[in-house]
């Protein structure tokens, strides 16, 4: 009987530990580890399933059998599959993704060089999407069922439906070739390429740090079109979710009570209702940002934007699997990190989530 009682007490004690702040950290850490392990497993299997021989990609089609066997052994492809996966995980945890065939540089070095371009593009796109998407969602919710609501919903539906590569090509055709309002593909004009001293890797930031205003505005003219294109998709998602959250809040009893008290409609909408909406909206914005970080491959390809998406695309076309898998792991890790950040912000903003 005493054994059963002590077992129950131990179970209750473990439950209390897992329900406290320390238990929350343990659960989050466990979730992150399992998710990252699953990401490594998927990328490893993709690298083995794809009909691409990394040895041929490294030595060429005309290499001798002896050279082929030696390189295959150096890559560890002669080992059993489970040992290859163990070596792969160990290397990744040490920051070793192998060397790129295209650049002959470590993949991690290449990623550190190209990722700031993707980060800059996605960040600007998200900022534009939030600045425009949140007010449009509020505007649509306030005018539910009226023509402003229908107009915002159609605008968002078009953003979801149009292929991004078509919008990119049309944008270049209209705003670059016909109207000459923006610069063409790339981050800056070729004339300025040798004048850049990368400090942060973010072109807009580096040009301001150098005090080169002409180069700054040249970089702005290059980034504004692809960033606006990404912002359109972010805006459509954020506006739709903001509208949904606002409709739920505007139907609550506290809104009716505020109106009975004579509080102005502007304050009710933009302070009370939107204030409660911002808590779940943080998660929406974070997910949108993560999607832009990992989903800008087509945009970077169309605009010749030297970011991570273009790097992975070129590597895949040239059978550079180390670069492809390394880029995929980094994208997945960024997505996991952004999700963790959004969960943390949610807990900080909403006391109920902390309890």
TrEMBL record:
Chain ranges of the ABC transmembrane type-1 domain = 115-346
Q: Which UniProt keywords apply?
A: Cell membrane, Membrane, Transmembrane, Transmembrane helix, Transport
Query: Its principal location?
Result: membrane
A Pfam entry, by short name: BPD_transp_1
Q: Which InterPro entries match?
A: BPD_transp_1_N (IPR045621), MetI-like (IPR000515), MetI-like_sf (IPR035906)
Any one GO MF annotation of this record: dipeptide transmembrane transporter activity
Q: Does the keyword Translocase apply?
A: no
Disordered: annotated segments? 1-20
Keyword Transmembrane helix listed? The answer is: yes
Tell me what topology the record assigns in the membrane.
Multi-pass membrane protein
The cellular location(s) given in this protein's UniProt record come to: Cell membrane
Q: What cellular-component terms does GO give this entry?
A: plasma membrane
Q: Which domain of life is it from?
A: Bacteria
Q: What Gene3D superfamilies does the database record attribute to this sequence?
A: MetI-like
Q: State which residue ranges cross the membrane.
A: 21-46, 121-142, 154-177, 215-239, 269-290, 323-346
Family of this protein: Belongs to the binding-protein-dependent transport system permease family.
Protein name per the record:
Peptide ABC transporter permease
The record lists the lineage as: Bacteria, Pseudomonadati, Pseudomonadota, Alphaproteobacteria, Rhodospirillales
């Amino acid at each position: 009987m005493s054994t059963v009682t002590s077992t129950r007490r131990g179970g209750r004690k473990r439950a209390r530990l897992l329900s406290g702040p320390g238990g929350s950290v343990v659960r989050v850490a466990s979730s992150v580890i399992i998710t990252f392990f699953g990401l490594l497993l998927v990328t490893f299997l993709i690298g083995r399933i794809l009909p691409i021989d990394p040895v041929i990609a490294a030595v060429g089609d005309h290499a001798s059998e002896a050279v082929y066997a030696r390189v295959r052994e150096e890559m560890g492809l002669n080992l059993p599959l489970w040992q290859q996966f163990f070596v792969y995980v160990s290397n990744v945890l040490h920051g070793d993704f192998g060397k790129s065939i295209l650049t002959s540089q470590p993949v991690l070095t290449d990623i550190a060089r190209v990722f700031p371009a993707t980060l800059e593009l996605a960040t600007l796109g998200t900022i534009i999407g939030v600045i425009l998407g949140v007010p449009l969602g509020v505007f649509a919710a306030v005018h539910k069922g009226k023509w402003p609501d229908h107009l915002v919903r159609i605008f968002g539906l078009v953003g979801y439906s149009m292929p991004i590569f078509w919008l990119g090509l049309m944008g270049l055709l209209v705003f670059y070739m016909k109207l000459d309002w923006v610069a063409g593909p790339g981050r800056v004009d070729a004339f300025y390429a040798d004048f850049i001293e990368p400090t942060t890797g973010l072109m807009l930031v580096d040009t301001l740090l150098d005090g080169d205003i002409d180069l700054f505005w040249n970089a702005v003219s290059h980034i504004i079109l692809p960033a606006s294109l990404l912002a359109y998709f972010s805006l459509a998602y954020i506006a739709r979710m903001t509208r949904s959250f606002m409709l739920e809040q505007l139907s609550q009893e506290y809104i009716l009570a505020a109106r009975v008290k004579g509080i102005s409609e502007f304050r009710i909408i933009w302070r009370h209702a939107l204030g409660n909406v911002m808590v779940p909206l943080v998660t929406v914005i974070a997910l949108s940002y993560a999607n832009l970080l990992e989903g800008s491959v087509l945009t970077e390809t169309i605009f010749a934007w030297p970011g991570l998406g273009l790097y992975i695309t070129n590597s895949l076309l040239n059978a550079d699997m180390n670069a492809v898998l390394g880029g995929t792991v980094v994208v997945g890790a960024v997505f996991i990190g952004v999700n963790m950040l959004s969960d943390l912000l949610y807990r900080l903003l909403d006391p109920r989530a902390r309890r």
